[in-house]
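User: I'm preparing a small set of examples for a lab meeting where we compare how different chains pack in three dimensions. I only have the primary sequence for this one, and I'd like the structure in token form so I can line it up with the others. Please keep the answer compact; I'll paste it straight into my notes.
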Amino acid sequence: MHDSLFALPIKEQLSPAISLRQLDELPVVIIDHPKVKAAITLQGAHLLAWQPAGEEAVLWLSDISEFKDGVAIRGGVPICWPWFGKVANPNHGFARILPWELTSHHENAEQATLTLTLSDSAATEQYWPKPFTLSVKFVLGKTCSIELEAKGDFQNTSALHSYFNIGDIAQVSVGGLGNSYVDKVNGGVSARQEGDVTFSGEVDRIYTHAQDVSLIHDRLNKRIIEIHHHHFSDVVAWNPGAELAHKMSDVPDDGYKTYVCVETARVNKPLIASHAAPAKLSTVFSVRKA
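Assistant: Understood. Below is the structure token output for the 290-residue chain.
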């Protein structure tokens, strides 16, 4: 799936490195730059791919995800807003299933920068009857920066639900998460751990005292993925394991083995936006050899 994104026919060349293309029903912005390749759908302002020059793909994208109007995409970096989880319909909020507007883009020798915007409308009022302006800025180069900004007068939960491409979940550990978490697999009880988290079955945890940087040790691919968290209160670690993955229609049966989610989040301490002070949530990814 990843390689096919960059072979899609060009509908409109927006700049030397940035073009608009079509992925089934969804418009997609493709960045094909000497320093980086990336892809963002206008639906959901959803980053599908980020690959610095000389590196393997850093983000995971399901080979059987649908790219349909109003259907959530499995993989990449979904934007969960204005709620996280199954607390209301749709799951993880409406921002990821509605069309955004590409409001600015530019590039230089090192990176491409794009901003997408979503504002309140008749389409959003059916889910959340509050005025707002939501924008996300991507800076894509050797590192990947995502900054979400919400303007209005409200509070809400949110997450940048990042799926990372790994060699084998059995050979992965994640450090920097702290030792206190809410265990969603076991009914939301508070729990503790020592050391890095590893994955031998379903893991769905909200870490409430995580460090500013999470480290994914991807031993099979001999690399470390760094996730820098900003304006966050929690970090979510998730992998469905074999049993749950088999029930997910948009994940291949063995697909769970090749991704891990480490998410910059505001769950236990909601974002608070005011007209004077917009709320922000941001993350920066980088990758290095182990």
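A couple of notes for your slides: The chain is about 5% helix and 50% strand. The chain has one domain: 2-289.

User: Perfect, thanks.
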